[in-house]
Amino acid sequence: MNDIHQTFARNGLIRPRDRRVLGGVCAGLGRRLGLDPWPARLLFVLALMVLPGSQILVYPILWILMPAEENVAFLQQAAPAAPPAAPTPPTPAG
Q1: Running DSSP on this structure, what letter comes out for residue 34?
Q2: Partners of residue 2 on adjacent β-strands
Q3: CA pair distance 9, 51, nearest whole angstrom
């Protein structure tokens, strides 16, 4: 489960501490998309109306899979250190 949380955190899908209404899923999606929480909530509801009944599944699943902002620091400490990137050779000017 930590691998999934780390993947979501790397992609910027994090449930923020502030501006939550229920679990912070829509606020986190809005932050990732560069939207305020309320327009993100409206878009989320409109998108879920296309697939009736999906609200019952999608929101709780995202709530479980998206890490909370307070847990991201813990996940980053628990993650194994990535090997350093190989230096790139300079390109000749010309």
Answers
A1: T
A2: none
A3: 27
